[in-house]
Amino acid sequence: MFVLVSVPRRVMSVTFAAVLLAGGSVACGGGSKSDSAVVDPPKVIPAAAVAKAAKNSADITSLHYRISGTVPAKGRLEAEASMNTQPLAMSMKMTAAADQGGHGQLEIRFVDEVMYVGGSGMRSEKLNGKKWLSAAPAIWGRSAVDNQSYGVLPSQLQGSTTTQSTLLTGSKDLRLIGTETVDGARTTHYKGTVNGDGLIGERLDQFIQLEVSDPLTMDLWIDGDDRTKQFRMRAKHNDMLAGTGDGPLDLTITFLDINQPVTIKAPPTKDTAPLADNAQEG
To answer: Are 111 and 86 in contact (CB under 8 A)?
Structure first.
């Protein structure tokens, strides 16, 4: 039995869309036998390995990670981000591919439930001499009903990255692919598909936020410390759920540093203009 989470309430801000530049994108060797019995090393069961990595993800307090791929209605994007869990804060630099209408880079920060947006992807004439726009209340990395980025972030990037990495625990066809090197680390690659009925609680909520049709195909690379090193999520877009746009989801998230010091601060007040002020000026 599982508990369904309500479909996320989509709140889009045309004001923020107006200050972004044009475009909807924001990218075993064998050994010789002896007279004594040869004992093979124990084989790791895929489900156990994935479950252990998911358990270790719960211990992440800070994370530096990279994102690349495509999201529905937005197209291709590249991003690099850092986050803290206590207090919850995130900083991301996101760039859209040129062929998707990308014009420069956006820098997005969530600090104390305020979102700050700056970077070369902002229309300078809308900033009134400032470097950043701010909006509140703004929340990232929580449940679907709590998250709010005023349309700046695709919904697929608003969810908890660490929880998204655990979705493969709900797979009923999980299998071992092999060993591979990812970002210099030796990893074990697992793969499977995930449906909404294979998830409960927070994981189900994060699945819904991806706004895709079943099933979600997921690859997971686990390093020698039994931690997630990388995961990839692929699925068709669910137009009925998302409401607008189309196209597939294909995102790869690589964990670069785990539980290393991360400092995320709000921009100086003198460099920031509240979104409300900008809206009043039309």
So the answer is: no
